[in-house]
Amino acid sequence: MSEIYVSTDVETDGPIPGPHSMLSFGSAAYTPDKRLVATFEANLQTLPGAEGHPDTMAWWRTQPEAWAAHRENPRDPAEVMPEYVAWIKALPGKPVFVAYPAGFDFLFIYWYLIRFAGESPFSFSALDIKTYAMAVLGTEYRNATKRNMPKAWFDKLPHTHKALDDAIGQGALFCNMLAANPRKK
Fold it and tell me: What is the pLDDT of residues 164-178, one digit of tens each?
């Protein structure tokens, strides 16, 4: 069974889970040859007692369309996260969590998985696209930014701050990076 790359993007109302909530998330499952095999997305109800962080909420006020999209039909995380686990387990390969930046997105997904589903099919691991770019480009981490990446790595996909759109875009980016890695050939 080969790996399946689960590109995931989260949208939140603050920097950490618990005091703040994950508003929505989207995952796009890709095979290493860039075949999009499945997607999952959900808008979530906010956590009891959690509040939006003032800085994050100020930024959301500049993104009214995306904010409205994240607040449509929010569902209970206690229902969504077990469904997400079942979706991951049904994928045709060993799941690898992929994100940009993984440190932020995985923090929320892992916390919500453990809290509401009692398990993480990703174990404790996440693959960070920026770190992978650093390795492929042979550059320092802080220079491995999107503006310094080859244009050929980017498909013409929108970055809308809607979780599934962004997960699809970053998954395509990651697969293009895989194909460009001279060590993979």
Answer: 999 999 999 999 999
Which pLDDT tens digit goes with each residue over 50-69? 999 999 999 999 999 999 99
* Structure-model confidence comparison of residues 1 and 10, the more confident one: 10
CB atoms inside a 10 Å sphere around CB 34: 15
- Interior angle at CA 91, CA 113 and CA 66, nearest 5: 60
Looking at the chain, the whole-number percentage of residues with pLDDT higher than 90 is: 91
Q: Please tell me the total count of domains within the chain.
A: 1
DSSP string, the chain: --EEEEEEEEEESSSSBTTB-EEEEEEEEE-TT--EEEEEEEEBPPPTT----HHHHHHHTT-HHHHHHHTSS-B-HHHHHHHHHHHHHTSSSEEEEEETTHHHHHHHHHHHHHHHHS--TTTT--EEHHHHHHHHHT--GGG--GGGS-GGG--S----S-HHHHHHHHHHHHHHHHHH-GGG-
Q: Which domain holds residue 130?
A: 3-184
User: In sequence order, what are the beta bridge partners of 5?
Assistant: 30, 96
- The pTM of this model reads 0.94
CATH number at residue 174: 3.30.420.10
Exposure b/e, 16-28, CB count within 10 A at least 16 = b = ebeebbbbbbbbb
